[in-house]
Amino acid sequence: MADAKALGRVYADGEVVFRQGDTGDCMYTIQDGRLEVLAEREGREPVRLAVMETGDIFGEMAIFEREVRSATVRALGEARVLTIDKRTFLGRVQEDPSLAFNLVRMMSARIRALTDRAGERRTGGERRRAERRGEDRRKTGP
Amino acid sequence: MADRGAVRSGAAAAAPALTLEDGARVGVVGGGPAGSFFSIFLLRMAESVGLDLSVDIHEPRFFTHRGPAGCNHCGGIVSESMVQMLAAEGIDLPPGVVRRGIDAYVLHTDLGNVRIRAPGAEKRIAAVYRGNGPRESEPVAVAGFDRHLLDLAEQRGATVVRRLVRDLEWENGRPRLVGTDGRTTTYDLVAIAAGVNSQALGLLPPPGPGSVPPRTQKTFICEFRLGADGVAEWFGDAMHVFLLDLPRLTFAALIPKGEFVTCCLLGDDLDDALVEDFFALPEVKACFPGSVVPPLACHCYPRINVAAARRPFGDRVVWIGDSGVARLYKDGIGSAYRTAKAAAKAAVFHGIAVADFERHYWPACRSLDTDNAIARVVFGVTHLIQRARFLRRGVLRMTAHEQAAAGGPRRMSGVLWDVFTGSASYGDVLRRTLRPAFPLSLAWHLAAGNAPGGMRGVTEGGPDG
Question: What tens digit of pLDDT does each residue of B358-367 get?
Fold first, then answer.
């Protein structure tokens, strides 16, 4: 993995790319390896939200918003990551708005995946409630 | 997009519009970066609006041969901004294609050297082979940059036709490409991406009335074999550039790549004598083991575009890449990307008539051309610095002090970095030098650097250093 020729920066296993609450002025693409996205809550263990793989882009919210990073991202094993500067990217988007298209498509796919996951959770919750109601009826009888 | 809808619905002007319709055929002459980028973006944009196109890329080379047969005769640097834009487009450059990631530039002068590190100390400049390496190189599994892009274009749906094009004729108002084997294919649109070093530009007729090919200049490119360890020890991950007072020399760079080092020279009336004079300079010799310049493994005198083509388009035909316009002395691959994408956008969203290219493609070319006018001013100043030793002292001192102070402003370092890497436009570089802090800081370093002992400990390797 630690190829002297390759582009980007190599992150060791567990090394943090950015932390929840950091201010950001760039986004990243994974050139090689895997990274995990963690939601950190005070006094509790971080919750893994997602695992990203080679080719994925992350941290793009910092490009469009002035908000702090919404989650922590750290390497799962050794990973090579390339930084895309906000200033460079937005400068080029002014000249060529279609440059943002790939990003919009990726964000759209991410929203779809979240919607699907939320739908699955709701369906799962309703099924569990229905099962509990069924069990209650069996226990109490007709 | 609006234009396209209007034309299709018949709501546009009465003049017959030329647009790409479902099933249209597009021919691309040349499978270098411009041809591949054009095909990738054309197919990607067409898909986004539900337009079904077929694209043929006419390229006789496989880019798998080592030496000149598979090479596109270029320094092979993908600039920092270009690497980022390609990544944002979803076009990554794998380690097999990148022969060395660059994270620093070493500026060599007769006063010593200074290393300019990349912002963030990250490798974001790619040294690549356009073919599959120099004549004597070891065979590798993955071919060079051009083949990588051509493969991506094929994966997108383009067909690579292994044929050399010798002429462009017209058949019922449509361009027809004639191969050297006599076979002909008629297209709705032809993009000429043959490049200024191809014979095709001389063979093919101009795309329209008033079209004039670009003006070119001869350069020198060669390869030295140092072996992977030698390259790592003597060059590391840094590109080496030279600010030397050698008449006719405009720019010189040594670029580490795998087991080789590529040398690029740009200058006026570049010839063998200038090349010999350059390699005889002690500052150049000192870059190599034992201060001995190794024998050349491979060399060529390719041409580069130094003045944009005029009206590089006509009805159904467009010149892209350095057949049209390129950034002066820098970032040829970036120019290929920008012109190819602009031409693809014009063709898919607006039309393929001369007026469409004039309105939607030419502005991208003009923007590069305007920036090149500023580049001439920037290189004029660089020329002055090359000639005047007292200026070199100030520039070198200011750069070295900025590099030593971590986290401080990178005024001169940033300007030099962007001039060498081609990451920012020349207009942006010039604007930054006009901010008050820049001339003030330079004036201080000019005064301090030219005072007795003012350069002591500032640089490495120089007489005062």
Answer: 999 999 999 9
Q: Does residue A36 have a pLDDT over 90? A: yes
Distance from CA of B376 to the nearest CA of A (A): 22
Apex CA B124: angle with CA B262 and CA B238, to 5°?
Answer: 40
Q: Say whether residue B124 is in contact with chain A using an 8 A CB cutoff.
A: yes
List the 75-114 stretch of A: residues with Cβ below 8 A of B: 82-85, 88-89, 92, 95-96, 98-99, 101-103
Residue B120 sits at the chain A interface (C-beta within 8 Å): yes
* pLDDT tens by residue, B73-94: 677 889 999 999 999 999 989 8
Q: Is B386 exposed, middle or buried (0-12, 13-18, 19+ CB in 10 A)?
A: buried
**E strand map for A6-71:** 9-11, 16-18, 26-39, 47-52, 57-58
Best probe of the B interface among A1, A3, A7, by most B CBs < 10 A, is: A7
Q: What is the pLDDT of residue A2?
A: 57
What lies within 8 Å, CB to CB, of B332 at 6+ separation is B74, B304, B305, B322, B326
Q: Which stretch of DSSP H or E encloses residue B421?
A: helix B411-421
Judge whether residue B310 has pLDDT over 50: yes
CA separation (Å) from A99 to B148, B151, B188, B338, B421?
A: 21, 21, 26, 11, 21
The 3-state DSSP class for residue B306 equals: strand
Mean pLDDT over the full length of chain A: 87
How far is residue B282's CA from residue B433's CA, in Å, rounded to a whole number?
31
Chain B contact set for A82 (CB, 8 A): 83-84, 87, 122, 124
> Whole-model pTM?
0.89
What residues of chain B lie within 8 A of the CB of A92, using their CB?
A: 81, 85
Average pLDDT over residues A34-57: 92
Distance of alpha carbon B362 from alpha carbon B339, whole angstroms: 9
